[in-house]
Structure formats: structure tokens, C-alpha cells
User: Fold this.
Amino acid sequence: MEDDTLTLGGNIQLTGFGGLEAATMIVVKKLVGTYARHFSNKCAKFELLKLSMKRVHEQEHSEKYEVHALIVDNGTQYTAAVTEKNLFFAVDNALKKTENEIKK
Assistant:
């Protein structure tokens, strides 16, 4: 499998999102950008936001998306993994889980 990592703004990486439609990708980028702003304001030293996505149980109209989120704040890693039928919910929930970890 070739490396399909997309880098946004230097400290945001999206892996596995390469095969998405353009309209879907725009929504994913906006969602990730909103969370990145949250993290840069909330973290002591926001270093990296990395999302990895893969499709599981791939069948027409019933695939699920497994999304792994990684946030690096001042050397500390926060991770979360979510599997959902809706890609946007998967991205949102994975980032929400990492945000809740940072609060602790």
C-alpha cells in the first residue's frame, strides 16, 4: 500500500483519506481544522494532530470507517479509535475523545 498521507498546515496529517470524493474531503478538512484550532488553544505545546482512516467491512452502502486520532502535546501522546458507519461521526468522535483525554 502506498503512503497516502496528506499534510495540512505543517502539524496536521491525514492518512488513508486519499480515496474519498472531493466534497467529502472538504468537510473532513473543515472538521479537522476546527479541532486543530481547539487543540492549539488548549494544549501547552500543540505539536501534531494525526488522523488515520481505513474502511472495514467494505460493502456497498454498509461500509464502516475506523478512525484513529493521535494528538501530541508537549511530547505527550493522546490517542483514540472509533469505528462508525458515518465517516464524519467517526472523525468527530475520535477527535472528541482525544480532546476529553487532554482535559484530564
